[in-house]
Amino acid sequence: MTQTASSQTDKTAFVRVNKLTKRFGRMTAVDSVDLSVAKGETMAIIGPSAAGKSVLMKCLVGIYSADEGSIFLDGDDVSRADSPARPEWAAKIGMLFQHNALFDSLTVWENICFRQIELGTLSRKAAKERATELLGLVGLAEESADLTPNDLSGGMQKRVGIARAISSDPELLLLDNPTAGLDPVLSNHIELMISKIAQQRGTTVISITNDMQIARTRYQNLTMMHDGKVYWSGKTSDIDDAHNEHLTQMLDGSSQGPITMRTGKREDGVYA
Ligand SMILES: Nc1ncnc2c1ncn2[C@@H]1O[C@H](COP(=O)(O)OP(=O)(O)OP(=O)(O)O)[C@@H](O)[C@H]1O
């Protein structure tokens, strides 16, 4: 991955977002955002509340259309929810929503293979087998398959959400706060599991997190958003102590952002 999605430099990126803008009335939730991720790499998106992180994710998954700018996935233009390439990409993207979005009236296994059952790509028997296999992968017992989401703890629900997100073996995995509300030990477990899944399957992963430490240790790339804009984007290995302090201050609201930026966007379009 190159350090930002400058359209000049990142034509080969698997995920390429160019000057993406999404508005709600007069409010600009995502403001001319550039980012890019190479195939098989991982990116954490971090930023304070209302920074535009979830709206960006919803543009990537195709819930919202770009008002301006573009989104390319493996070269396909999917900038709008109704772009011709979108239907094909629906099956190639797995998403964990912020509040898991599990169906309370369905069992765990039906939730995990919901899409396959709906589309008829798997019989119910095959779907249950597949879901049970995925439960093992996310560290849940086979017996959980017949429970409903209400029977599960928050951490277990997250795991079921992740199992559903990877059920179609997606090329792109989008995770909106996979560890929100979980204790640090469980958060680490889940993040480790995500890294392993990404490594074993070669999945490209973009994940929102509020934890700078997790972002730095578990992800290859990091994008910091603030007020709908990308404030910093680059390799986590390039984050030195000064950057770390600065980004952490932005995250907890003790820095007002770009005014106190230590370094800025270079002439070649790379944030440093
Ligand atoms: N459907 C919508 N209609 C109107 N405004 C919206 C809508 N969705 C999001 N917003 C607004 O867009 C801004 C960005 O929201 P977003 O959910 O992307 O923030 P976020 O960075 O994910 O924050 P958090 O970490 O708190 O979830 C917020 O001001 C939010 O109120």
Automatic annotation (TrEMBL):
One of its GO terms (molecular function) is ATP hydrolysis activity. SUPFAM superfamilies: P-loop containing nucleoside triphosphate hydrolases (SSF52540). The keyword Nucleotidyltransferase does not apply. It holds the Pfam family ABC_tran. It comes from the Bacteria. Residues 15-252 form the ABC transporter domain. Keywords: ATP-binding, Nucleotide-binding, Transport. Residues 250-272 are annotated as: Disordered. The keyword Transport applies. InterPro entries: AAA+_ATPase (IPR003593), ABC_transporter-like_ATP-bd (IPR003439), ABC_transporter-like_CS (IPR017871), P-loop_NTPase (IPR027417). This is Organic solvent ABC transporter.
